[in-house]
Amino acid sequence: MSVTFEQIILDAKRIANRLKDREALGDALLLESESVNKQIESMRQFQDDIDILNRLARERSNNQLITIIHQENPQIREIQQENRLLKAALEDHQHALEHIMSKYREHTQAKILNTKVNFVEAYSRHHQAADIERRDQLIRQQTAKIQEMAAVMQRASQLDEEKLNHEQEVLSRLVTENKGLRELLEISRKYGSGGQKMLVDEKSTQTESCLLEGLIEAAIKERATATATTSSSSSSSKATEKPTTDTTPADVKVPATEQHSSAVSEGPSTMATTSSSTNTGTIKAMTAVVNSKAEPTTPSTTTATATATAATTAITVAGTVPATTTSSS
Q: Positions of the region Disordered (predicted)?
C-alpha cells in the first residue's frame, strides 16, 4: 500500500495539533502545580502562626484570657449598639432624602410643563385679534422697559462723567497750587532772609514728583475707563432701541425720552476727547516741571528753572481751562 504525499502532510498536521494540545495541557499542569505550591506555602505559614500563638497562649493562663475577654465584651456590645443606631439613622436619612428628591422632581416637572410654550396653539391663534392686541401690549411694555433701562444707563454714565470731571478739576487745581508753591519755594530758596539759600531734601522732592506722576496716571486711567463705559452704554442703548422701534406697531408713538437719550449719548464722547487732549498737555507740562525740579539747583541754573516753571504754569493753566469749561457745559 503506497503512502501519498497528502497523507504524510495530514499526519504531520495531526501530530502538530497533538503537540499543541499537550503543550497546553503541560502549561495547565504547571499552573496547577504553582497554585498547589502556593497553598502549601500558605499552610506552612499558617501553621507557623498557630505555633507562635500556642506558644504565647501557654505563657498566659486561662484566667487572664477570660478576664480580657470579659473586659472586651461590653465594649464590643456598645460598638455593636452604636453600629445599629447608625444604620437606623442612615436608613432614615436615605428615606428622607429620597422623599425630598421625589417631591423636588415632581415640582420641577410641573413647573417645566407649566412654562412650556405650545407653539401649535400659539400659531393657530396668531391671526386672532385678541392675541394681536396682547402681543402689541407686550411689545409696548418691552419698549418701555428698554427705554427706562437706557435712561438709567444714561443717567449713570452722566453722573460718572460729572464725578470724573470734578476729580479732574480738583486734580488740576491741586497741580497748579503745587506748582505755585514750588515757585514760591524756589523764590525763597533764591532770595531768602540774609541771602542764605534754604536747603531742600532731594528725597522729598523726588517722592513728591513720584506722587504727582501716580495721581496723573490714575486720572488718565479713570478717564479712559469712563470714555469706554460711556461709549459702550451709548452703543448698547442704540442697539437695544433699534429693534423695538422696528417691531412696534404704527399706532405706538415713541416717547420724547428716547430721542433725548440718543441726543445726550453723543455728548460724553466729545467731552472725553477734549478732556483727554487737555490731559496730555498737562502731563507733558508736569513732567517738564518735575524733571526741572528733580535736578540739583546751582547758582548758574536758578534763573533757567524759574523761567521754565513760569512757562510750564502758563501751559498747564491754558491746558486745564478747556477741560473745566467742557465739563461745566
A: 225-307
